[in-house]
């Protein structure tokens, strides 16, 4: 009998597991862009602990193991900013990323008021772009960061999120 993955609010005790998962999960992004200095790979434990206190941080647990995580906050303009969606490589392509995204959207709406959700990913991160498109996100901007990297910004109105959740 297999265990099911449970999504819950992250606690201070999850910080080390989240950081290790983030480091593991972002290796493929670093390789894709040839840049191992990206923030998810250089973030400190203290910085992550500060985010736990300052943002909505959710984790996906399989038993005691953190196998996914996502962060979100509502900015001063009522935009739900979603970041650091990461799923353990062995758990990818089973819908967990979509479940985490929906869960953080619901948390941000509950905090309210939220007009839209916004996130970004690298232009070569095709799996991420497909996931976000399936979840109702649409590209709004592409901004060159360096010769190797452009950030793609995607947004979704809250009404679209509520329709997907129903």
Helix content: 25-40%
Q: Main sheet, how many strands, which sense, barrel?
A: 7 strands, mixed
CATH fold-type name: Aminopeptidase
In DSSP terms, counting alpha (H) and pi (I) runs of 4 or more, how many helices?
Answer: 7
Q: What would CATH call the architecture? A: 3-Layer(aba) Sandwich
- Class derived from helix and strand content: alpha+beta
In spatial order, strands of the major sheet run: 1-2-3-4-5-7-6
N-to-C order of helices and strands: EHHHHEEEHEHEEH
* Tertiary shape: globular
CATH class: Alpha Beta
Task: Outline the structure in words.
This protein has one domain (5-165): Gcn5-related N-acetyltransferase (GNAT) (Aminopeptidase), CATH 3.40.630.30. 39% of the residues lie in helices and 32% in strands. It has seven helices and seven strands. Helix 5 links the parallel strand 4 and strand 5. Helix 5 packs across helix 7 (158-165). The longest helix is centred in the middle third of the chain and has 16 residues, at 96-111. The mean pLDDT is 91.
Question: Mind sketching the topology for me?
Answer:
Layout lengths: L4 E5 L5 H11 L1 H7 L5 H4 L2 H10 L1 E7 L2 E10 L4 E9 L8 H16 L4 E7 L3 H9 L3 E7 L5 E8 H8 L1
Parallel strand pairs: 4-5
Antiparallel strand pairs: 1-2, 2-3, 3-4, 5-7, 6-7
Helix pairs in contact: 5-7
Offer a few descriptive terms:
166 residues; 32% strand; alpha+beta; 7-stranded mixed beta sheet; globular; 7 strands; Aminopeptidase
In short:
The protein is an alpha+beta fold and 166 residues long.
């Amino acid at each position: 009998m297999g265990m099911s993955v449970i999504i819950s609010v992250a606690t201070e005790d999850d910080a080390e597991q989240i950081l290790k998962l983030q480091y593991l999960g972002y290796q493929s992004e670093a390789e894709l862009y040839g840049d191992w200095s990206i923030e998810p790979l250089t973030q400190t434990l203290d910085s992550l602990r500060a985010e736990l206190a300052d943002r909505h941080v959710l984790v996906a647990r399989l038993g005691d193991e953190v196998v996914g995580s996502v962060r979100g906050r509502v900015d001063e303009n009522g935009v739900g900013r979603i970041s650091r969606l990461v799923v353990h490589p062995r758990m990818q392509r089973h819908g967990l990323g979509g479940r985490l995204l929906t869960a953080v959207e619901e948390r941000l709406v509950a905090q309210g008021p939220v007009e839209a959700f916004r996130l970004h990913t690298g232009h070569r991160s095709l799996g991420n772009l497909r996931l976000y498109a399936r979840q109702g996100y649409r590209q709004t901007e592409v901004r060159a960061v360096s010769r190797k990297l452009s950030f793609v910004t995607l947004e979704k109105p809250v009404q679209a999120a509520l329709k997907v959740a129903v």
